[in-house]
Amino acid sequence: MSASVVFFPVANGDMTLITLDNGQTILIDIKIRAAADDEDDETYDVASDLKDRLKTDSEGRSYVDSFLLSHPDQDHITGLENHFYLGPPADYPKDSGLIFIREMWSSPLVFRRASTQHVLCADAKAWAKEARRRVQRFKDDKFGTVDGDRILIMGKDKDGKTDEITDIVVEQGELITSANRGSSGQFTGRLLAPMLVAEDDELVALLEKNNSSVIINFSLTGGGNADKCRFLTGGDAGVAIWERLWHNHKDSDPDWFTYDLMQAPHHCSWRTLSYDRWSEMGEKVKVCEDARSALGQAKFGATIVASCKPILKDDSDPPHERAKREYVSILKPDTVKGEFICTSEYTNANDRPLEFTVTFSGVSKKLRAAAAAATIVGVSAVASSARGHG
Q1: Inter-axis angle of helices 122-141 and 108-115, to 10 degrees?
Q2: Residue 77's closest CA among 187, 189, 236?
Q3: Beta bridge partners of 152
Q4: CA 64 to CA 30: how far, in whole Å?
Q5: Is a pLDDT exceeding 60 seen at residue 95?
Q6: Cα–Cα distance between 347 and 351 in angstroms, integer?
Q7: Where are the domains positioned within the chain?
Q8: Model's pTM, two decimal places?
Q9: CA pair distance 55, 65, nearest whole angstrom
Q10: CA within 20 to 30 Å of 345's CA: 109, 140, 198, 211, which one?
Q11: CATH code for residues 3-377
Q12: Measuring CA to CA, how many Å separate 347 from each of 82, 268, 307, 365?
């Protein structure tokens, strides 16, 4: 089977499914709103679509091999308790239809920073509780854990809190090489953030003001060939994070930021690219050049995906039309020849999620069967609905 990356339409929020060359899955964030679960509502039924794409195990449970939560904001974790099973594997309620999480990818540092700014929603608290349970299982049994008990910790925690569990900690700059201890060679994931900084570092205060998130640059195998798609994803990471990352790595490791696909951070927010407030300065705002450079390492033919509501020319942020303009300029029609796509706008026009396939020849946007057939015979086609609404 081909590897793929699917961006589900969830308005301002993230929900992305990576399917690896070997069929394993990595889910990044979720936003499953009550409207999406309502059969009488036209909101896209992302939960049903997700389940349709997942495998089931010998006990009849739909499952994801790994589930990464970039950060615990509500628009990245909504629907967790309604659609996913949390708890000891042996207690899974038969025929519940809940999705089974074989391995969690979680960052205690991101949770710590988030909790100083706002009260966690119920789904975020449930995730944190389950993460603590799995960490304790590892402490109790080390590598004897089974599917449904496993966890990887994204980044070291402060004050040595992760020193006793280093075997399941991925430090900043290190590579993740397998999902749920599966076969290696299907992907690598370079962990770029969160970053652990000294308490007297000026970035500490900025981290409290900007959303801190897990940032990973995936390199996906396609058709058995390594590094056929670079996918950069970073939740709601703000301008201060991208500026510092580029400052630290532009001379030694600029390749860590190159991408074929990038999920525009914070739903195409202007605050990812600049310290200036649009509401105060309008078109006089200035882009932070280091942050733009970190986000500007687009490969030829790259696509930047904004997971957000339709982008209008108003003062809404996120998304922000000025940020979109900056991303379009990164894609340079004359050289990079890339494409900028908003998930909501794409789905409104095509009635399906935005999906990319990764093969031995690289990454490409997936065409619907009708459109692909029409392309072969040299005529245009109007795409029909592949997946209905709930």
Answers
A1: 140
A2: 236
A3: 105
A4: 12
A5: yes
A6: 5
A7: 3-377
A8: 0.92
A9: 10
A10: 211
A11: 3.60.15.10
A12: 24, 17, 11, 13
